[in-house]
Amino acid sequence: MKNNLLFKGLLVAALGCTASSLHAQPCSGVPNIGGANATDSFFNCSGTPQLGLTSFPVETGITYQWQSSPTLAGIFTHVGPVLTSPNFTAPAIDSTVYYRVIANCTSLGGGSATSNVLAITVDTTPAVIVLSPMSPAPLCTGSSASFTGTAVGAVVSYQWLENNNIINDGGVYSGTNTDSLHISNVAGLDSNTYSLVAYGCSNSDTSSEAILAVNAMDVWTGNVNNLWSEPDNWSCNAIPVVSSDVVIPLTLLQPVVDIDSAIANTITIDSGAILSFLPASALELKSTITENGVFDATLGKVILSGAFAQNIPGGTYYDLTIDGGSTKVSDSDVVITHVLNLMWGYVQIGNNDLILASPDSTIGGGEFAFISTNDTGVVTFLGLGITDTVTFHVGQVTYNPLGFRNNGVVDNFSVRVTNNVYEDGVGNVQQWVTFPVINRTWMISEAVPGGSLVTMSPHWYLPGDAMNGFNNNFVYVIHHNGTEWESLIDSNTTGTMAMGNNPYYTTATNVTDFSPFSVGSGNQFPLTIKLSDIAAVNIGSVNNIDWQSASESLGDKYELERSTDGKSFTTITSVPSKGEAASYTYRDMTPVSGINYYRAKMIDANGKFNYSKVVSATVSGASVFTVQAYPNPVGNVVNLNVNGTMAANATALVTDMTGRTIKSVQLSTNNADIDMSGLAPGIYFIKYSDDVHQASVKINKQ
Question: With contact defined as beta carbons under 8 Å apart, do 27 and 45 qualify?
Fold first, then answer.
């Protein structure tokens, strides 16, 4: 061998290149081989061993035969063919196998060498979870979480389950196919369960479930002060975010919203607890308020912007904004003292009232942002006078607003709109009208009857709101007078073209009698006789009734009717018309003691009739109990005069327009002076009560 190696070295030196197998010399003697090795000496479940030697001669004539045995002490048998290289890909195995290789020099006189034994281990032990993931302590919204499990045996792969469903990497999840799962943000995952599956060669094992508790409830603690904006006042040491479910328990320091960017998902106010606002502060809510305590928004702004239905707690709000596109349902009566901002969404008031304290109380409003008067509740504007023009942003299913201006005495006006127009005006008998009409009824009422002079503009959409061949080119407002529908324009006029464009509108002026109204078209109401005004006044024991006609013809007549309850009327006189616009006076010489109600029945020559508005006059007497206040308007002191015999516990309450009691006065005589000097200008009520009587007087404080 040494001579051969020397020859090869001399040959390399002579040729100036490395010896290759083309120049290798035949082997002789025993091959000098290194140890047996493998690319992988361990497999889970199964594998295909890649075998070789750490070193081996380059001589020609050497062959290699691999052998295997299932046990170290067992009989080795040939595996695979005779090779000229020690590198060998063994057949796939699914249990531990021992390998060795025999190197044989085929030259004359050559020998053989056997390598060491190499074990290729295969683990088929079943996968077993030995440590399940643990449930962490409750986490705050926005926190991260990790779960880890431990498995032994031949584990091929891992898979994490959430609520028994497979999850994959992405979003807040990573490590879903390892033994450790990471969640970057636990918001919205409260009460979810997490378990680890370990897959073995022919089995799987699943851990027990860990439960993720997310403290989405940001609980008020009031540890530092009463400011919402102080993080240390909250259980998670951070002010609530958009996903927070806020809980306000009864604490020593109750929270006050002090910033214009407060936000939460839900709010629960526990019994006895109070959530209030500082001026210019704002709170946005994405979901509901549970008001077991007090939600006091009299100084702040509340923004309801949820995409799903939200509730509006009853009470007084400074500002209320409706956004998010969903329906907001009022829990009880709502009063807005500054601004109702209708951006996107619907306020459904049901049987509750929505009261707007100022003519400037609404902004926004439209087809996708209005107040749904879906039941008996009304929208009320307080204190409308000659300088105030407002829009009642009402509808039921569609947007049917009412433009409104009162050119008469300052008063409160309430409106709701209903679907359908009934023969009786109110739907007690649900028989629809058959004449052309907009299929909506605007129910309008005033707080104090008389003295109002209103311009109104109902709005509608075509074609959806029209019925019975309604013609948009000839329209006018119609009113139900208690007996039938009548036009508010000259009966011989078919109406003017509607204004606007979806919504369309028309206008009626000088309206003094209210509820209900709709919009008709064509010449549907041919009554020629019309009144411009009617009034009643008491003079001692006689009541004078005066009326003025706007138009009439020969053959028309008036029947004057009287009632003691404002409901059941009887005719007391019949007066023929003068054939032209004229004034009439009738003296009722035998009125009843107390309130007498009057109306004029106007009958034209064709027998068609209509009724005037109802007016009243009061005959005072010993048996009549009345309460009066003067002067009115009042400056500093108003005198309350009780006409009649007072019963025990006589009291006078001064209240504002929302019903809030300003002061209380105990009465011992029929005349009392009440100090009004400290009150702001506006409308107030003096409410008298004793064990027998009740009365209310409206006062205008200057």
Answer: no
What is the Cα–Cα distance from 38 to 51, expressed in whole angstroms? 4
Count of other CB atoms within 10 angstroms of residue 372: 22
Three-state SS string across 261-296, please? Answer: CEEECEEEECCCCEEEECCCCEEEECCCEEECCEEC
Task: Supply the pLDDT for residue 176.
Answer: 97
Label each residue of 295-360 as H, E or C. Answer: ECEEEEEEEECCCCCEEECCEEEEEEEECCCCEEEECCCEEEEEEEEECCEEEECCCCCEEECCCC
Phi, psi angles (nearest 5°) of residue 684: -135, 165
**Is 53 exposed, middle or buried, given 0-12, 13-18 or 19+ CB atoms closer than 10 A?**
buried
**2-123 and 530-619: identical CATH topology:** yes
CATH fold group of domain 128-215: Immunoglobulin-like (2.60.40)
pLDDT at 14: 31
Domain boundaries, the chain: 2-123, 128-215, 218-304, 378-522, 530-619, 626-701
Sites in the chain below the pLDDT cut of 70: 1-23, 216-217, 490-493, 523, 525-528, 606, 608, 621-625
Question: What is the model's pTM?
Answer: 0.56
CA atoms within 13 A on the CB side of 558: 26
State how far the Cα of 274 lies from the Cα of 294, in Å rounded to an integer. Answer: 5
Return the CATH superfamily for domain 2-123: Immunoglobulins (2.60.40.10)
pLDDT at residue number 542: 85
What pLDDT is attached to residue 243?
Answer: 86
Task: Provide the CATH number for the domain formed by 626-701 in this structure.
Answer: 2.60.40.1930
Identify the CATH assignment for 530-619 out of 2.30.110.10, 2.60.40.10, 2.130.10.10, 2.102.10.10: 2.60.40.10
The confidence score (pLDDT) of residue 6 equals 31
Other C-beta atoms within 10 Å of 75: how many?
8
CB 117 within 8 A of CB 101: no
Are the C-beta atoms of 107 and 28 separated by less than 8 Å? Answer: yes
Pairing state between β 411-419 and 379-384 = antiparallel
Residue 5 φ/ψ, nearest 5 degrees? -65, -40
Whether 676 and 699 have beta carbons less than 8 Å apart is answered as yes
Query: Would you state the structure tokens that stand for residue 545, as one six-digit string?
Result: 């009734």
Looking at residue 21, what is its pLDDT? 42
Spatial CA neighbour of 481 closest among 610, 603, 615: 610
Please answer whether residues 398 and 461 qualify as being in contact, where contact means their C-beta atoms are separated by less than 8 angstroms: yes
Strand positions, DSSP E, 323-471: 327-330, 334-342, 345-348, 354-356, 362-364, 369-372, 379-384, 389-392, 394-395, 402-406, 411-419, 437-438, 440-446, 454-460, 466-467
Which one-letter DSSP state was computed for residue 170?
A: B
Task: Write out pLDDT tens, residues 289-303.
Answer: 999 999 999 999 999
